[in-house]
Amino acid sequence: MKNKAIGIFDSGIGGLTVYKALKEKMPSERIIYLGDTARLPYGSKSAETIVRFSDGNALFLLTKNVKMIVVACNSASSYAVSYLQEKLDIPVLGVIEPGAEAAAMAGREKIGIIGTAATIKSRSYEKAILEKKPEIPVLSKACPLFVPLVEEGWIDHRVTRLVAEEYLLPLKDEGIDALVLGCTHYPVLKNVIEQVLGKGVTLIDSAITTAAKTASILKSLGWLNNEKSNLPDEFYVTDFPDRFRRVGEIFLNRKIEKVTTASFYTVSLPQA
Ligand code: DGL
């Protein structure tokens, strides 16, 4: 088990923020990443569709013999994690629980949550935070324009700043002191978000707490890989590998050597 890779899936490229956090926390682990670029965005889709897509993604990663699956996409984590946990016999972790844990620790007065329309509609973060800290007021806001702005590479752009002001100033006026960045793309906008909200608001990046939780799950199972593998990490997408590589390099701030197109809609699992 130790030598097997960790599988991650996302609707596309944004999950690379989780990939990066996993790599920083566990440099010896090999990672197999799947971005479902043919079917993104997930954030505007229904619960049923997100679960169906997530099911296919997990099956694909199982064919790669992974020891654990991390669901990097917040929208998929909101709807599909408990389904996958019940269905699969390897550990499955989403980003909601670890993010909510960090938010409950950081927020003292009022916690803000931003995410895609699907994530906010599910109330997944809100429920998970209130389970840990029932008395804290929570404010949620869908910020659907952030994803296309990041995909366009408009990270430090005046349009992005205007959009951020429109979305976030009302949360600031309400007096939030912590904000959950409940979407894979939002950590890329940390600077702009910080400029709009000021230093008094702690930004919660689920990617970092998810990496810590992944490490603790693998450690408790004795499945942590202590020796660095010679095999490289693998990146798969369901469409547009070149675009994934180009925008992915912005996310990772480094080169991505190879991206393979996976057409897994007809995969069959190897016999046990
Ligand atoms: N990965 C998605 C999320 O974190 C954002 C992009 C999409 O809508 O597919 O919710």
Q: How does the helix and strand content classify structurally?
A: alpha/beta
> Could you tell me the radius of gyration in angstroms?
18 Å
| Number of separate structural domains | 2
Q: Give, in order, the helices and strands.
A: EHEHEHEHEHHEHHEHEHEHE
Helix count, DSSP H or I runs of 4 or more residues:
11
- Estimate the mean pLDDT confidence: 93
Strands, total number: 10
The helicity comes to: 40-55%
Identify the CATH class of the largest domain: Alpha Beta
- End-to-end separation in angstroms reads 15 Å
Low-confidence spans: none
Shape: globular
**CATH fold topology of the largest domain:** Rossmann fold
Strand order of the largest sheet: 4-3-1-2-9-10
What is the percentage of strand-forming residues?
Answer: 15-25%
Q: What small-molecule ligands were found?
A: D-glutamic acid
Q: Describe the sheet with the most strands.
A: 6 strands, parallel
- Would you identify the CATH architecture of the largest domain? 3-Layer(aba) Sandwich
